[in-house]
Write a structure and sequence with these properties.
- The protein is of the alpha/beta class and about 240 residues long.
- About 20% of the residues lie in helices and about 30% in strands.
- The chain has five helices and 14 strands.
- Strands 6-5-4-3-2-1-14 form a seven-stranded mixed beta sheet, covered by helices on one side.
- α5 links the parallel β12 and β13.
- α4 crosses α5.
- The radius of gyration is 17 Å and the shape is globular.
- The two termini are about 15 Å apart.
- The mean pLDDT is about 95.
- The structure holds nickel (II) ion (NI) and manganese (II) ion (MN).
């Protein structure tokens, strides 16, 4: 294991725990009620930062409970950060698309997503967002729920190592648009998410490689730079080399 190794655990859907540069980041912690998540709230290792991409319950999930319990920094759009603060989360960081902030754990940048974001009870939850974190040498993009957007071409210059992109269709982009998005962003590693959680977003994920290969070469990109697609078992802690 080199210093440039990070660890990523997928809990199914859009929930990930990323360990990099000595800190842990937990994205969209939909734990209770997530049919693919093999751990309980109590079994979940603590994180320093909890990030929420939008207000839907399969993303806000257990964020308030966990961030309060761990005294973690909760990062979300300003509306969701204020909502979580009003519900007892002490440390919150509210961002809006285009904005970034340096924290003691690393830098976090808030980027656009095309999706809704109502909070429980119909409270206004601002706009859905994605995040790009810079944690040590790792530059990681979690797209949240989104369509394919031309905005993604802007992410290429950030030099993203790992991109977590939804591909379940119906509520987000599907496999073909996920392949197009990956080609626009050009990460080293694609981590597909938000598929097969329920029947309505079931996808033949094994076809993604061929779709990506076609899009990548069609865009005139070099074959040896084709992003690697990782498929992880929920709950398993995976090492990922940063290169
Ligand atoms: Ni959603
Ligand atoms: Mn969702």
């Amino acid at each position: 294991m080199t210093q440039n190794t990070c660890f990523i655990t997928w809990y199914g859907h859009a929930a990930f725990r990323v360990e990099a540069a000595g800190y842990a980041w937990l994205f969209d912690p939909f734990i209770q009620g997530n049919p693919k998540c093999p751990v309980s709230l109590e079994q979940l290792p603590p994180a320093d930062v909890v990030l929420v991409s939008h207000g839907h319950s399969d993303h806000l999930g257990d964020a308030i409970e966990l961030a309060s319990r761990w005294n973690a920094l909760l990062v979300a759009n300003v509306e969701i950060a204020e909502y979580c603060h009003s519900r007892g989360v002490t440390h919150t960081l509210g961002l809006q698309p285009g904005g970034s902030a340096c924290t003691e754990f690393g830098q976090v940048r808030c980027v656009t997503a095309i999706h809704g974001s109502p909070l429980p009870g119909g409270r206004y939850g601002g706009v859905a967002v994605g995040f790009v974190i810079h944690a040590g040498d790792l530059i990681l993009y979690h797209a949240g729920d989104t369509a394919l957007t031309q905005d993604m071409t802007q992410l290429k210059r950030l030099g993203i190592h790992a991109a977590m992109l939804p591909c379940g269709d119906r509520f987000t982009m599907g496999l073909e648009d996920c392949a197009r998005a990956t080609t626009l962003i050009a990460p080293r590693v694609l981590i597909p998410m938000h598929y097969n959680t329920w029947n309505v977003i079931e996808q033949p994920i094994h076809t993604l490689h061929a779709l990506l290969h076609r899009e990548w070469l069609g865009a005139g990109r070099e074959e040896h730079r084709l992003p690697q697609i990782v498929e992880w078992t929920p709950g398993k802690r995976n090492a990922l080399d940063i290169y």
